[in-house]
Write a structure and sequence with these properties.
The protein is mainly beta. The protein has one domain: Beta Barrel (Thrombin, subunit H). The chain is built from one helix and seven strands. Strands 2-3-4-7-6-5 form a six-stranded antiparallel beta barrel. The longest helix is centred in the last third of the chain and has 12 residues. It is globular, with a radius of gyration of 13 Å.
Length: about 110
């Protein structure tokens, strides 16, 4: 994964993916605002503080198989969402996400 300052530079595109997010024993379902190969922006009902570590499961079969990742909240702002940087993901999941992101039309960048 990329260093914390570099993660913001990932090519983002707007998309609504359903994400199951786990923080400890609590589970939440949210939608994405945008996605990149280094992280995503969520539109959750509950805002998580910066520094919160989360587990994410998301995808959109058949274009994007279900992926699993660990992440950390890098920013959180009411009305705008929560930015999560991926901190750990299997190599297969990383490659699938990168293929998915690279296949998106440039006009969809967010």
């Amino acid at each position: 994964m990329l260093a914390s300052e570099e993660w913001k530079r990932g090519r983002r595109f707007s998309t609504a993916l359903t994400v199951v997010l786990a923080k400890g024993e609590d589970h939440y379902v949210s939608e994405t605002k945008n996605v990149s190969d280094t992280g995503l922006c969520l539109l959750p009902m509950v805002l998580f503080p910066v520094g919160t570590q989360v587990h994410l499961v998301f995808g959109r079969p058949p274009d994007l198989p279900p992926l699993s990742a660990q992440g950390i909240v890098r920013w959180s702002e009411g009305g705008k969402g929560v930015g999560v940087q991926f901190t750990s993901m299997s190599l297969d999941d990383q490659q699938a996400l990168l293929r998915f992101v690279q296949a998106q039309p440039r006009r969809e960048q967010a």
